[in-house]
Design brief:
heterodimer; A: 479 residues; mainly alpha; 21 helices; 2 strands; B: 171 residues; Four Helix Bundle (Hemerythrin (Met), subunit A); 7 helices; 73% helix; flat
Chain lengths: 479, 171
Amino acid sequence: MDYTDLTALAPLIVTAFVAVLIVVVLSVRRVHRVVLGVTLVGLVLAGLSIMLAVPLAPRQVTVLLIIDSYSLFYFGLLLAAAVVVSLLAFSYLEQRRENREEFYVLLVIATVGAMVLVASNHFVSLFLGLEVLSIGIYGLIAYLRNTPFAVEAGIKYLILAGASSAFLVFGMALIYGQTGSMQFGAMAAKLSGDVHLGLVLPGLALMVTGVGFKLAVVPFHLWTPEVYQGAPTPVTAFIATVSKGGMLALLLRFFTEFEALDLGPILLAFALIAIASMLAGNLLALLENNVKRLLAYSSIAHVGYVLVAMLAGGGLAAEAVTFYLVAYFVSTLAAFGVVTVLSDRDREAEQIEDYRGLFWRRPWLAALLTVSLLSLAGIPLTAGFLGKFYVIAAGVGAAQWALVIVLVAGSAIGLFYYLRWVVVMFGQLPTSEAQWSWPRPQALWGGAGLALAALAVSILWLGVYPAHLSGLIQACIPG
Amino acid sequence: MLPVFWIAAIVAIVSTVMVITRANAIHALLYLIVSLLAVAVMFMVLGAPFVAMLEIIVYAGAIMVLFVFVIMLLNLGPKGVEQERRWLKGGVWGGPCVLTFILLVEVGVMLSRSGIAESPAIVPVPPKEVGIALFGPYLIGVQLAGILLLGGLVAAYHIGRPEPRDEEKPT
């Protein structure tokens, strides 16, 4: 490791340093605002330090991490999502009796884990990144420890994530035993010379289990609704975006490295997982009246859509996956953001009935939620539409007809429950006084308002004029 | 060395099956210790004596003893003494003892044959090489493990912190 290596790692080092710095600040004095300020400044500085690393890319830093334009792009995306989540979390935590400051330590640590994940091309960094991400998320899910639901969700996630990590490690061990290497590139080179795949297929099958759990795809999705519902809403937004996005970025890198190989059974397994996720996610969401669970099921379906693009392979696939993820990030963060700011200290705004007539009381929030839901549904002029367009183009280009047909059918089903929520918002105001009084009219904190406004602008901007982003993605991702 | 490996592997599997099937936590833990010892013997056969020692010191030693202590400390008082007496009745410790004895014989055989790795394919990895690998190519891994521990510490502190007594917001 020399000076150049450290410069290339600057975004990671700065982010990890922020976590330590917050702990130091906490030990001097607990002031929520100061901690938020340190977090935001630190994350923004980490984002700016990406610029230092850009001229050095691509660079392999030790055997563990690869700093190329692809990982730098995802660093930026993950850091931006972390900034939005901490802004949303501030007013949410301000109303609560808990110690609020540790939240930011765990949030930053989990972000470090996701960043390691997107930069890893070695099993050791993959596993360590995943565990750092998971341990931050355990703490975040159970953060409001006085609500029994949160603790239950935290324990559930802890046990299931532990079990899935065991599958992942076992799979890695089998692959390492067959190839004698833990680095993706070396493994692929070794396997392309060796016709006999041997233990690699069982190893990959075990790894799919571990990865599938993190992505919450069918049939590894059973934890998703409970954890999404039980976790504090900003944390749910974090799990839906940063945790899934990090894993998908890693999967994309893995697929690209192994593209030359004939991994038929694994691709078939992923195709079946994608179909099952698109169908089950959308169908289960139809019956939900709890909006956090509804978004949980819809996120299962969205990962299914991303997998369609990933299975298509080729240059367009990487571009489509990345564009879709950016669109999914902004839309999901906006939707959970509105749920967060409507929640008060007694309960979360999680029943769909809570949103009845929201437009007549909080027109801006209702408009933002409508835009984000339309984007998730894939209506034109929003980011989600172009994301879906990209995915379908990739699928059609690779002649994956079955996947594309299921994708279109799934999106049609999806329209129903997204629009149902929108219709409720524009519906009649409740007549009784009790329903009127909730959600309580509370002022929107400026920081959260700023974050939400930025998300709304990005959804519309990406939907109307995507050339900037797609140009950036094309530059960052070698086709 | 192959028979030694296979016998240790069978001991590991048998004891792990017993861990899962025991209804009593203490009995399961005794078998878990045996399972970890068997894995340590396997590491030794494969030419990794340092990892074998770590397995015993860290897992079978520190972590398992902590487990056993916590479970025993949860049942203090005369009722607990009675329960512990029942736990330590004959037959309960018989199984783990037999399995451990097999492992002990194996280690004895290995030591008497002067040198662990007889097969030329197996090159023992001394502690120095492990250290050089950890603080050379895997340096970032060590640092990430540090961040992992910090995260675990902060999460455990927050969730395990005693309740503030008054209704006031803690600041």
